[in-house]
Amino acid sequence: MAIDNTSTKVITGKVRLSYTHVFEPEADDNGVDKYSTAILIPKSDKDTLKKIQAAVNAAIELGKTKWPNGKVPANLKKPLRDGDEERPEDEAYQGHFFLNGTSKNKPGIAKPIGKDGNGKTKFQEITDTTEVYSGCYAKVSLNFYPFEAKGNRGVAAGLNNIVKVQDGDFLGGRSNLSDDFANEDFEDDLGGDDDFLN
User: Fold this and answer.
1) Dist. CA 47–CA 41, nearest whole Å
2) Are 96 and 12 in contact (CB under 8 A)?
3) What pTM was estimated for this model as a whole?
4) pLDDT tens track of the chain, all 198 residues?
5) Could you list the residue range(s) of the whole structural domain that residue 126 is in?
6) Does 130 fall in a domain?
7) Residue 60 sits in a domain of what CATH number?
8) Are 69 and 131 contacting, i.e. CB atoms less than 8 angstroms apart?
9) Helices (H), the chain
10) 8 Å CB contact between 154 and 146
Protein backbone atom coordinates (compact mmCIF):
# COMPACT_ATOMS: atom_id res chain seq x y z
CA MET A 1 0.00 0.00 0.00
CA ALA A 2 1.62 3.26 -1.13
CA ILE A 3 1.40 6.10 1.39
CA ASP A 4 1.96 9.68 0.34
CA ASN A 5 2.53 12.75 2.50
CA THR A 6 -1.03 14.00 2.02
CA SER A 7 -2.46 11.00 3.88
CA THR A 8 -0.33 11.75 6.96
CA LYS A 9 -0.95 15.52 6.93
CA VAL A 10 -3.72 17.17 8.97
CA ILE A 11 -5.00 20.74 9.16
CA THR A 12 -6.79 21.01 12.50
CA GLY A 13 -9.92 22.91 13.37
CA LYS A 14 -9.61 25.59 16.08
CA VAL A 15 -7.34 24.24 18.80
CA ARG A 16 -5.67 25.74 21.86
CA LEU A 17 -1.92 25.90 22.29
CA SER A 18 -0.13 24.99 25.52
CA TYR A 19 3.55 24.69 26.53
CA THR A 20 4.28 26.78 23.46
CA HIS A 21 7.89 27.20 22.25
CA VAL A 22 7.51 28.15 18.59
CA PHE A 23 9.78 31.19 18.23
CA GLU A 24 12.86 29.72 19.91
CA PRO A 25 13.68 26.01 20.16
CA GLU A 26 14.15 24.23 23.48
CA ALA A 27 16.10 21.05 24.17
CA ASP A 28 13.92 17.92 24.29
CA ASP A 29 14.50 14.89 26.55
CA ASN A 30 17.33 13.77 24.24
CA GLY A 31 19.04 17.17 24.25
CA VAL A 32 17.90 18.00 20.70
CA ASP A 33 16.76 21.58 20.11
CA LYS A 34 13.17 21.57 18.84
CA TYR A 35 10.27 23.94 18.35
CA SER A 36 7.17 22.57 20.04
CA THR A 37 3.68 23.10 21.34
CA ALA A 38 1.02 20.98 22.97
CA ILE A 39 -2.21 21.11 20.96
CA LEU A 40 -5.53 20.82 22.81
CA ILE A 41 -8.34 19.51 20.60
CA PRO A 42 -11.92 19.75 21.89
CA LYS A 43 -13.55 16.32 22.09
CA SER A 44 -16.50 17.89 20.25
CA ASP A 45 -14.31 18.49 17.17
CA LYS A 46 -15.03 15.08 15.63
CA ASP A 47 -13.80 16.17 12.19
CA THR A 48 -10.26 16.99 13.37
CA LEU A 49 -10.12 13.85 15.53
CA LYS A 50 -11.15 11.66 12.57
CA LYS A 51 -8.49 13.26 10.36
CA ILE A 52 -5.83 12.69 13.04
CA GLN A 53 -6.86 9.05 13.48
CA ALA A 54 -6.67 8.47 9.70
CA ALA A 55 -3.23 10.15 9.53
CA VAL A 56 -1.96 8.10 12.50
CA ASN A 57 -3.18 4.90 10.78
CA ALA A 58 -1.38 5.96 7.57
CA ALA A 59 1.81 6.60 9.56
CA ILE A 60 1.50 3.14 11.16
CA GLU A 61 1.35 1.63 7.67
CA LEU A 62 4.55 3.53 6.85
CA GLY A 63 6.08 2.24 10.07
CA LYS A 64 5.54 -1.36 9.00
CA THR A 65 8.17 -0.77 6.30
CA LYS A 66 10.67 0.40 8.95
CA TRP A 67 9.93 -1.54 12.11
CA PRO A 68 11.40 -5.05 12.67
CA ASN A 69 9.60 -7.89 10.84
CA GLY A 70 7.18 -5.38 9.30
CA LYS A 71 4.98 -5.63 12.38
CA VAL A 72 3.24 -3.08 14.57
CA PRO A 73 4.79 -3.22 18.05
CA ALA A 74 2.47 -4.25 20.89
CA ASN A 75 3.54 -1.20 22.90
CA LEU A 76 3.21 1.28 20.02
CA LYS A 77 3.22 4.89 21.25
CA LYS A 78 0.47 7.03 19.72
CA PRO A 79 0.45 10.83 19.84
CA LEU A 80 -3.18 11.52 20.81
CA ARG A 81 -3.89 11.45 24.56
CA ASP A 82 -6.97 12.05 26.70
CA GLY A 83 -6.79 15.23 28.78
CA ASP A 84 -9.53 14.08 31.17
CA GLU A 85 -7.53 10.94 32.01
CA GLU A 86 -3.94 12.21 31.90
CA ARG A 87 -4.39 15.76 33.23
CA PRO A 88 -7.48 15.59 35.49
CA GLU A 89 -6.11 18.42 37.68
CA ASP A 90 -5.66 20.83 34.73
CA GLU A 91 -8.86 22.67 33.85
CA ALA A 92 -7.60 23.66 30.38
CA TYR A 93 -7.22 19.99 29.40
CA GLN A 94 -10.72 18.95 30.49
CA GLY A 95 -12.96 17.91 27.59
CA HIS A 96 -9.96 17.77 25.24
CA PHE A 97 -7.62 15.33 23.60
CA PHE A 98 -4.06 16.61 23.27
CA LEU A 99 -0.84 15.87 21.44
CA ASN A 100 2.62 17.38 21.20
CA GLY A 101 3.78 18.76 17.86
CA THR A 102 7.53 19.23 17.38
CA SER A 103 9.94 20.26 14.65
CA LYS A 104 13.67 20.85 14.26
CA ASN A 105 12.74 23.64 11.83
CA LYS A 106 10.91 26.81 12.87
CA PRO A 107 7.23 26.52 11.95
CA GLY A 108 5.52 29.12 9.81
CA ILE A 109 3.53 31.42 12.13
CA ALA A 110 0.89 33.78 10.74
CA LYS A 111 -2.59 35.25 11.10
CA PRO A 112 -5.33 35.61 8.47
CA ILE A 113 -5.85 39.18 7.20
CA GLY A 114 -8.68 38.79 4.70
CA LYS A 115 -9.15 37.47 1.17
CA ASP A 116 -7.41 38.23 -2.09
CA GLY A 117 -9.16 38.90 -5.40
CA ASN A 118 -9.59 35.15 -6.01
CA GLY A 119 -11.23 34.56 -2.64
CA LYS A 120 -8.13 32.91 -1.14
CA THR A 121 -7.13 33.75 2.42
CA LYS A 122 -4.21 36.17 2.79
CA PHE A 123 -1.83 35.80 5.72
CA GLN A 124 0.53 38.07 7.62
CA GLU A 125 3.60 36.55 9.27
CA ILE A 126 3.71 36.94 13.04
CA THR A 127 7.13 37.98 14.33
CA ASP A 128 6.03 39.40 17.72
CA THR A 129 6.92 36.60 20.15
CA THR A 130 4.20 37.71 22.59
CA GLU A 131 1.42 37.20 20.04
CA VAL A 132 1.45 33.39 19.99
CA TYR A 133 1.48 31.96 23.51
CA SER A 134 0.20 29.18 25.74
CA GLY A 135 -3.55 29.78 25.84
CA CYS A 136 -4.18 31.32 22.42
CA TYR A 137 -6.22 29.56 19.72
CA ALA A 138 -4.96 28.51 16.31
CA LYS A 139 -5.33 26.18 13.37
CA VAL A 140 -2.28 23.98 12.96
CA SER A 141 -0.74 21.99 10.11
CA LEU A 142 0.71 18.68 11.32
CA ASN A 143 2.42 15.73 9.65
CA PHE A 144 2.31 12.35 11.38
CA TYR A 145 5.24 9.96 10.97
CA PRO A 146 6.55 6.69 12.42
CA PHE A 147 9.60 6.77 14.68
CA GLU A 148 12.00 4.41 16.39
CA ALA A 149 14.25 5.79 19.13
CA LYS A 150 15.96 4.15 22.11
CA GLY A 151 13.80 1.05 21.81
CA ASN A 152 10.57 3.04 21.57
CA ARG A 153 8.44 2.80 18.46
CA GLY A 154 5.41 4.84 17.63
CA VAL A 155 3.86 7.71 15.72
CA ALA A 156 4.78 11.34 16.36
CA ALA A 157 3.34 14.66 15.16
CA GLY A 158 5.57 16.99 13.17
CA LEU A 159 4.76 20.70 13.50
CA ASN A 160 4.49 22.46 10.11
CA ASN A 161 2.61 25.76 10.36
CA ILE A 162 0.47 27.71 12.85
CA VAL A 163 -2.24 30.24 12.03
CA LYS A 164 -3.41 32.16 15.11
CA VAL A 165 -7.18 32.73 15.05
CA GLN A 166 -8.07 34.03 18.53
CA ASP A 167 -6.62 35.26 21.82
CA GLY A 168 -7.31 33.31 25.01
CA ASP A 169 -6.48 33.36 28.71
CA PHE A 170 -2.82 32.63 29.38
CA LEU A 171 -2.11 29.11 30.56
CA GLY A 172 0.50 28.53 33.22
CA GLY A 173 -0.55 31.17 35.73
CA ARG A 174 0.27 34.29 33.74
CA SER A 175 -2.47 36.90 33.86
CA ASN A 176 -3.64 38.97 30.90
CA LEU A 177 -2.33 42.55 30.98
CA SER A 178 -5.56 44.03 29.55
CA ASP A 179 -7.67 42.18 32.14
CA ASP A 180 -5.44 43.23 35.03
CA PHE A 181 -5.68 46.93 34.22
CA ALA A 182 -9.13 47.10 32.56
CA ASN A 183 -10.64 49.21 35.37
CA GLU A 184 -7.61 51.40 36.04
CA ASP A 185 -7.57 55.07 35.08
CA PHE A 186 -4.15 56.19 33.82
CA GLU A 187 -5.06 59.74 32.89
CA ASP A 188 -3.51 61.26 36.04
CA ASP A 189 -0.41 59.11 35.65
CA LEU A 190 0.02 60.46 32.15
CA GLY A 191 -0.24 64.03 33.43
CA GLY A 192 -3.75 64.45 32.03
CA ASP A 193 -2.23 66.21 29.04
CA ASP A 194 -3.61 64.93 25.73
CA ASP A 195 -0.57 66.31 23.93
CA PHE A 196 2.07 64.69 26.12
CA LEU A 197 3.25 62.46 23.25
CA ASN A 198 3.52 65.32 20.74
Assistant:
1) 11
2) no
3) 0.83
4) 444 556 999 999 999 999 999 999 999 888 889 999 999 999 999 999 999 999 999 999 999 988 888 889 889 999 999 999 999 999 999 999 999 999 999 999 999 999 998 999 999 999 999 999 999 999 999 999 999 887 889 999 999 999 999 999 998 755 556 666 777 777 666 655 555 444
5) 5-173
6) yes
7) 2.40.50.140
8) no
9) 5-8, 46-64, 83-86, 177-180
10) yes
